[in-house]
Amino acid sequence: MNIGMNSITDPIGHIQQWLNEAEKTESRDPNAMSLATVGHDMLPDIRTVLLKEIAPEGLYFYTNHNSAKAKELSENPKAAICLYWKSLNRQVRVRGNVSSASKEKSDSYFATRHPQSQAGAWASQQSQPMESREAFEKGVKDVLHKYKDKDAIPRPPNWGGYIIAPLSIEFWQEGEYRLHTRHVFTRNSEDSSWDKTILYP
């Protein structure tokens, strides 16, 4: 099945196209992606995060800069992600370099979050041992109380965005009898164009 991939000239833009289609068919969080990182111990780690923006420069997600994933990215600023949409029998795999988003970009996204989520970003010492659930919930309430008379809750200085700049992108479409379609786009280091390869399933 060709599924129109032979005509792709902008693979990053094509991720957005597939995501738009998945938003119509996936029951929840079509922007959920598995994010794999490797720290100084060279042991791979993986978790699910939410893809918040697809732009020409790459894919954006946000997290606490003191989290395990952020520490691994500071040690080895490279990552792989996988978006899988069961309703469409499709997946996209991306590998690339990671850099921090601008403060302005992080501020802009943080301002769109629900106040409870904003307060949670302040109260959470992400990936650290927690005294109790009650202590965490009290921390959230304390933040909400602190800023109740303010126009907005500001972004914590240790929270912000990351950009995955793709070096390779694979589009996978399930086929009958496991005769899948796989197209891989690899960034050309000389002129930043994309080289395309079709893989056996």
Q: Which features does this protein show?
A:
about 200 residues, alpha+beta, nine-stranded antiparallel beta sheet, 5 helices, 9 strands, about 25% helix, about 35% strand
General description of the model:
With 201 residues, this protein is α+β, with helices and mostly antiparallel strands. It is 25% helix and 35% strand. It has helices spanning 11-22, 68-75, 103-110, 115-123, 133-146; strands spanning 32-38, 44-50, 53-55, 58-64, 78-85, 90-100, 159-173, 181-187, 194-199. Strands 1, 2, 3, 4, 5, 6, 7, 8 and 9 form a 9-stranded antiparallel sheet that branches. A hairpin with a 6-residue loop joins β8 and β9. The longest helix is centred in the C-terminal third of the chain and has 14 residues, at 133-146. The relative contact order is 0.18. The model has no long low-confidence stretch (mean pLDDT 95).
Q: In a nutshell, what does this entry contain?
A:
25% of the residues lie in helices and 35% in strands.
Any chance you could write out the topology, listing elements then pairs?
Blueprint: H1 11-22, E1 32-38, E2 44-50, E3 53-55, E4 58-64, H2 68-75, E5 78-85, E6 90-100, H3 103-110, H4 115-123, H5 133-146, E7 159-173, E8 181-187, E9 194-199
Antiparallel strand pairs: 1-2, 1-5, 3-4, 4-7, 5-6, 6-7, 7-8, 8-9
Helix pairs in contact: 4-5
The rounded Rg comes to: 19 Å
The rounded distance between the terminal residues' Cα atoms is 12 Å
Helix content estimate: 25-40%
Reading the helices and strands in chain order gives HEEEEHEEHHHEEE
Number of helices: 5
* Average pLDDT over all residues: 95
Structural class: alpha+beta
Low-confidence stretches: none
